[in-house]
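To illustrate the input format used throughout this study, we show a single complete record. The first block contains the structure-token representation of the backbone; no residue identities are included at this stage. The design step must infer an amino acid for every position from geometry alone.
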């Protein structure tokens, strides 16, 4: 039986792709760059916003200066509009409530920048207690670096064997391999089951309620 469930945020707990796409397209348009269809952003996100901007920029303009220019336009807009179209996936709120009632500890490990990560969790899950909510922080390598998982373990004073990590992407599955924790890929997120299978996770699930069964095992 697991004691701690660590959740990825985007594509796992909340479908944020519409607001991420809208905000990135706004920033690109402000700088005179072409925009992208919403669906294409599912393959650009997952490694933090700077990597998102690099992927969204035309190949010939992918440099640090331009990435920072996009970021300057994106962050204020996204901070204001990041709850316009985002929503928890069906069944997630019920799952979190049940995990809480059953005494499981929960945490969030995201590559979204810290302030937005905290805001979305508080906005969409105000009644749910998370032991710690960590996004991308200055000076800390993003996932798949395992530091974020180690920081959660320190905060909760738990061991790797106590953890079930739940995420929707190859980045998440590589994180679990690097952190040496039990992995659970979800098929309802931004990436394909095929991508998840590449990393041979311990579990791949199609319904949020399956997480409870795995955690109790």
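Output of the design step:
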């Amino acid at each position: 039986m697991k004691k701690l469930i660590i959740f990825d945020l985007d594509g796992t707990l909340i479908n944020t792709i519409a607001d991420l796409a809208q905000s990135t397209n706004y920033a690109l348009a402000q700088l005179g760059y072409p925009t992208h269809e919403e669906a294409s952003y599912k393959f650009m996100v997952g490694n933090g916003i700077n990597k998102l901007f690099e992927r969204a920029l035309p190949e010939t303009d992918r440099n640090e200066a331009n990435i920072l220019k996009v970021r300057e336009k994106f962050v204020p807009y996204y901070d204001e509009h990041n709850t316009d179209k985002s929503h928890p996936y069906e069944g997630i709120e019920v799952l979190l409530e049940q995990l809480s009632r059953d005494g499981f500890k929960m945490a969030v490990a995201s590559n979204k920048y810290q302030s937005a990560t905290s805001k979305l969790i508080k906005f969409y899950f105000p009644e749910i207690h998370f032991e710690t909510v960590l996004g991308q922080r200055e000076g800390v390598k993003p996932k798949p670096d395992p530091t974020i998982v180690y920081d959660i373990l320190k905060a909760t004073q738990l061991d790797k064997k106590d953890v079930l990590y739940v995420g929707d992407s190859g980045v998440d599955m590589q994180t679990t391999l690097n952190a040496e924790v039990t992995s659970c890929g979800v098929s309802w997120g931004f990436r394909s089951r095929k991508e998840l299978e590449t990393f041979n996770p311990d579990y791949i699930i199609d319904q949020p309620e399956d997480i409870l069964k795995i955690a109790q095992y």
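Structural context for interpreting the output: Residues 21 and 170 are 20 Å apart (CA to CA). The chain has a mean pLDDT of 97.
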